[in-house]
Amino acid sequence: MVRILLILFFILSSSGVIRCARDDGDNDLGFMTSLDPKLLNLKEEKLSHFRLYWHDITSGNNATSISVVRPSNLSATGFGIINVIDDPLTLGPKLSSKLVGRAQGFYTLSSQEEVGLLMSMNFAFTEGKYNGSTITVLGRNTVFHKMREMPVIGGSGLFRFARGYVQARTHTFNMKTGDAIVDSCQNTKPELKMVRILLLLFFILSSFRVIRCARDDGDDDRDFLTSLDPKSLSLKEEKLSHFRLYWHDIMSGSNATSISVVRPSNVSTTGFGIINVIDDPLTLGPKLSSKLVGRAQGFYTLSSQEEFGLLMSMNFAFTEGKYNGSTITVLGRNPISHKVREMPVIGGSGFFRFARGYVQARTHTVNMNTGDAIVEYTCYVLHY
Ligand SMILES: *[C@@H]1O[C@H](CO)[C@@H](O)[C@H](O)[C@H]1NC(C)=O
Ligand SMILES: *[C@@H]1O[C@H](CO)[C@@H](O)[C@H](O)[C@H]1NC(C)=O
Ligand SMILES: *[C@@H]1O[C@H](CO)[C@@H](O)[C@H](O)[C@H]1NC(C)=O
Ligand SMILES: *[C@@H]1O[C@H](CO)[C@@H](O)[C@H](O)[C@H]1NC(C)=O
Ligand SMILES: *[C@@H]1O[C@H](CO)[C@@H](O)[C@H](O)[C@H]1NC(C)=O
Ligand SMILES: *[C@@H]1O[C@H](CO)[C@@H](O)[C@H](O)[C@H]1NC(C)=O
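Above are the sequence and the 2-acetamido-2-deoxy-beta-D-glucopyranose SMILES. Below is the predicted complex in structure-token form.
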């Protein structure tokens, strides 16, 4: 039996200016430095709201959503299927209406009782001042429910430090051939035809601070959440830490740290649909032989049909000094041919509990023959 302790913070929208202490810090390793958060030019938090239509096209020549993993014995709910998506986001429900970005990432059918998706995607905006900025959504989407709510867990560019939620409502659902999710016979694969699903009403609520936890009076046994005084976690002032690491993605040779675990049979020129699992060394210098301070563990999915655009989902697991055992979690969009790619830091553990921030990735070296890459990661992390 596993007991799970859940610590839930109520995060309110704070309109205050962020205060963060300077770290006078004992930096035993010297790779992390403290910065004055004012350097990030963080001002007031803003609440933005917008509505988009998300088009998941699984059929035809121009499919934007392809199944890359399909268990041999598919259940009626499609449990186990993984689709990689590069779905258009438009202002109106018609595919021909104004395109403002793309939803890139994947979803996994992860419910055995209904069609329930875990969605992990970046909304990469391409219009106006939002061009190049992203928001990252990770949540549960039970597609036959009228309304599904998923958290916005981070953002980049204009949406740095974003938090919030999206509400998804299906607009149209094409159940051609009446087969939504019926496992008919062995060779006919059930096809989930979400020709035009739905969409999204957004509330982006960025908020920096844990505001308040009410004391809980009611104590019935179903209530497994209890309120704690945040002081019990000894959360003090938020700090801004800055560090630079080199990330080594080694795909070749006997010591590869990045392996393709999913490869669609028809790989396009942008590799759409490929998934690599990584355990990449993080070093202080660009050379692999320089000081190792941790590893980047997780995976990336090639989720763009127009360029090499990755959804990256990884933990930086530190192994040095006081950071040993601590992690930060990065989940974001990485169009690798761009000079600078910004991805949100969406969480952390140990030393980096409650972390938020962003990393900027710049390619240092890439070997065109092997695909091996060394990428500089500059990290800005707010944590306690
Ligand atoms: C695919 O896209 C091309 C160019 O945008 C278009 O001409 C064609 O009709 C589309 N095919 C389908 C099946 O939608
Ligand atoms: C796959 O499905 C068939 C028929 O339903 C069943 O006989 C078989 O045991 C299943 N195999 C696995 C590995 O679940
Ligand atoms: C968005 O930015 C890209 C690259 O920075 C540029 O090529 C493109 O033209 C821009 N699109 C719009 C609509 O501004
Ligand atoms: C793999 O690692 C081993 C041990 O670290 C080393 O001896 C060997 O040269 C490496 N091989 C390659 C191809 O880098
Ligand atoms: C795979 O590619 C071939 C050649 O480009 C094409 O004829 C075939 O229809 C493709 N198959 C799928 C499933 O897309
Ligand atoms: C980091 O922690 C692990 C487990 O706690 C320990 O085995 C290892 O020696 C530590 N490494 C360093 C460099 O302190």
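The chain has no helices and 19 strands.
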